[in-house]
Write the structure tokens for this entry.
Amino acid sequence: MLIRILNGVRHFSRSLCSYDKMKYLCVAEKNDAAKTISSILSNGHSNRREGYSQFNKIYEFEMNVRGQNSKIVFTSVSGHLLNREFTGMHRKWLSCNPEELFHAQILKYCPERYEKIKQTIEREVRTSNGLIIWTDCDREGENIGYEIIEVCRAIKPGIQVYRAKFSDMTAPSLRRAMTNLAAPDERISQAVEVRSELDLRIGAAFTRFQTLRLKNLFPQNISQDDLVSYGSCQIPTLGFVVERYNEIEAFISSNFWKIKLTHRMNNLTVEYNWARNRLFDKQCCEAILMLCKAENLAIITNVNQKPKSKWRPQAMDTVELEKTGSRKLRITAKEIMTIAEKLYTQGFISYPRTETNKFSPDLKLRPLVEMQTAHPDWGEFANRVLEWGPNPRNGNKSDQAHPPIHPTKFTNSLAGNEKRVYELIVRHFLACVSRDAVGSETIVNATVGDEEFNATGLVILERNYLDVYIYEKWTGREIHRYEIGNTFVPTVLDLHEGKTSPPSLLTEADLIALMEKHGIGTDATHAEHISTIKDRGYIGEVDRGLVPGILGMGLVEGYKLMNLTLSQPELRAGLEVDLKAICEGRKNPNDVLQEQIEIYKNCYQTITREVAHLDRAVGNRFGVQPDNNAQPLRITSIHKICKCPKCQTESIIIRRKKDNTGSFLSCQGYPTCKHAIWLKINVKDVTSLDEKCTNCNNDNHKLKIKFSQPYMLSQVEEVPAYSRVENGHYITCIYCDSKAREVLQIKTEDVKVLGNVVSASTRPVVQRNPVINSNPPRNNNPALNNNPVRPQSNNRNFGTNSNNSNDNRRGWPDNSRSSGSNNNSNNNNQQSFANLFPNFTNNQNNNNSQSQRRNWFNNDGDGSSDDRRRDKDKLNALPNVLCGCNAAALKLIVRKDGPNKSRPFYKCNGDKCKFFQWGDVPLPTTVQTMQAGGSGGGNERGPKKCGICRQAGHNRKNCPSINR
DNA sequence: GCAAGGTC
């Protein structure tokens, strides 16, 4: 005993020691960020250890947090930790109407590839006192932060959560963030939730509909492997390309005329521009020319010389990298980003997905320039920059998380496009931190008669950044040395004819600029969207110009014929406005979500209603008529059989077996809910009908059952009013028809929630229409009050007044009576069913287990009379519940010594069904327990406990209290 | 098989 006490004291003191230092779990958005932040906050003294994920390390150090020396455990996620997906049959393309996806259940889950990251966080948070979110300080980062919080709170509900807000990855900013820890902003996260859910719903619904429809109608043009996808970013992106193409197609060229004036002297020809530029009236232009020729002398009226600069490029953000790379290197934006990401992971450049185009004053630029001095091509220029002192030309954008793209490590060993992209980033950086080019511009004005002309000359004085930034040209232009009042006879004074030309096709760089301007996608996704619509065949590339493909044209034209603006950026821009309003607390996220769902659902309904327009538009572009022989798509509607009694959220539906040998019943919420009902061998097949049950009013659909022995049906004499026999099938409602369940060997609890409270009375009264809400269970267990029993939408079939039972009206006896021993007519019915369905067995073989359970639970004689009185009071306080037979369950007390002694429980009166339920736990849990544990109590008991000390983790043989 | 958004 003494040893035990000493051990207890030792354990207690150890616990105290472990709590004398606060421990914070910090989580960044990516491993690189965790590494950098840890290194800075620890002054380079953090210790690295492994997490479950090989890509996401753990960095440990100590520092002062909120005035207390604390242990820091720093780890990371890899972007979003959770994803969304439809559940059950809504995941399958041909198992539901796509329109259902606007309201179908969506499951948030951790993808398998991030499971290890989640496990690391779960493990580390167990021993932490606080959680600090260090994700990027943008909208997505806030949402990722809440995903981390969700995972942590599942382990430690009460953990204190803080948000570190930093403007960049520099020491002052990060330290400031740690000393000014704030609360995470749920509104920002909710805006992302809205965007995310909406994108999934509309993307999946439209994509499935378009793909299935058009593939079916145009099998020669759209292959079975093709997708005709719709996305709220990809289709407006397609829209830009189509719009430019249409502008070009619709362009009508016009002739114009202008007056050309040149002056050649000393082998130099200077060209003058006419102040009127051009005229579209030839006769007018000719008349003016004649007046000029009549004079035939130009007079210099003004000479103005002024300095002119050509600005060096701004600090580079992602969009600039994509645009410049696409224009100058002629590499697609997607490939540029792929290469940039590779360079980043190799440490050659900073993070390439950034919206920041200004360098923080805290970022030391000189060392970055110094490291480039060794390069043979630009090393000399880097030295010049050092002489000048690095002076970046900054923009005004910041994502508050990443610096502009810049080189972080010197290399001269890259090859191919990797070398070219690295070179672009280095040259851009050196140019940005150097000096503008300087020149001197001369503008000369002249008149010929009454007409004004001008000419410009340029002398480049200092090339500066142009020496390193080979992607830009600045050409000088010589001009004669004029003085005011000089005159000259024009070398050429003539009429010049020209034609207006259409705009050019969009380049990828133009498209990215348009996407950015209209808020389509993010800097990190522009290239991805362009790549996607290329993959879909919506657009193609001709001489570096983007052109719509025939499918892309057909889609956009189809939408326009239906007066839908799906291919224009306004819909998405409207969402962005709403998301901003959510972030600022001006709009409720759920309101926005519902509004947006309705907007897109209306579009969807228009498409399905007027789909002939889409068919025609696409058909016209393909040059074929829709395939008239195409069979209509067979999309199986999901028929609700009844509400799943296990999850009580989704419905029981019919599913086909994988080997296509038949069907089974399963919860629609699979895999979240794995409730399934496997049919026995007396059923050959079961299908659901469009027809709904008129008896239960639950919107349940009837089942069409084919038995393995057809002759049995011929012997069925009477069926309930809502059921019938048809072409060798039995058609009924499995929810209402208890006898059918019996025949199919489906447990009542597999289709109905058992244990519904029927009365708080001590007398086991069986009610036909129990009204749960008006008879709340009287129970001292607060868990019960926190988890109220869900009322059934229609409980009348739970009533066991068999004389009035609907099930019984046409001779299908109620389950509660069929196996009872006090009803002769039941016995008769039972006999007839035994004949009809030889495989059906009664509960006769339960007798042994019944007696065993009776012995276990009702060990009468052990308790005193006082005990029994107390037990009786306890039982009287319990509400009455229904068992699987739809009859009032017995209320008993465990008398046997053991962990459950004195606990109240319910069981079937007579052990006709295997119903068991503890009286002191919430009812839904009990139902599950009954299924899992057979005789009951399995899950409630939790981990197996030692029979001696009642602690988990060991048993009687190795109980530490004995060993000592 | 679907989106868009993170990330490796």
